Predict the structure.
Amino acid sequence: MSSLVRKALAALVLPILLLLGWEWGVRAGLVSPMFFPAPTAIAKALLGMAESGRLCVDLAATLSRVAAGLAIGVGLGLPLGLLMGWKPALRSLVDPTIAATHALPKIAIYPILMVLFGIGDGSRVALVALGAFFPIVINAMTGVRQIDTRYFEVAESYGARGFRVLSEVIWPGSLPLILAGLRLALNGALLLGIASELLTAREGLGGTIWMAWQTFRTEDLYASLCITGLLGVAFNGLTDLLVRILAPWRNGERTTD
């Protein structure tokens, strides 16, 4: 059995045991189904959402907002972070502002975004973009700063300047930390996307969670939370795949049999 299969099976053991214990607790009357519906009831609700088409609508709405906000946040944060790590003067100018705004709770800024972009998808995408911007800009900057200065000296001794330094030294040297920042950006974008839908959206996983809470349909609430959790797992798997493809030299792990 391959190590990948063993890891996958090991990762499933604890969730399966928890689900079995949860199901048994509900059936035995030890857990209130009103607040903690049985996993089988949640699965039935999830199947009903899929058959009605509601799940596809919610997923499409949430993922479109997350994708748009992620593209904006990463598109702005990645080049800024690389330049901040490369140019000390720019870092001294911009870093205090980044540090101050990063400390602000993003959901607390949401009312300002609604004033600027309206109560529709514009403000939701802007909030998601903020959630993606800070992890990528900080990790990109840190990734450049941790590159040994000898690499820059060697590149300059061979006449490399400007774009060649960026493409041949800065980009490959900072890529592992950039991908780590992308993982944080994906999770932050999903979190804030769901949060914005909880407050103002009718369509989307967050909107369904809020409506299920208001109508006390706890099975639908837990079903939507399960889908959100699976999206988080999928995003992490995507970033792991990108590491394997783009930075295979940093993918080694020490294993013991």
Remarks:
- Residues 253-257 have pLDDT under 50 and may be disordered.
- The radius of gyration is 22 Å.
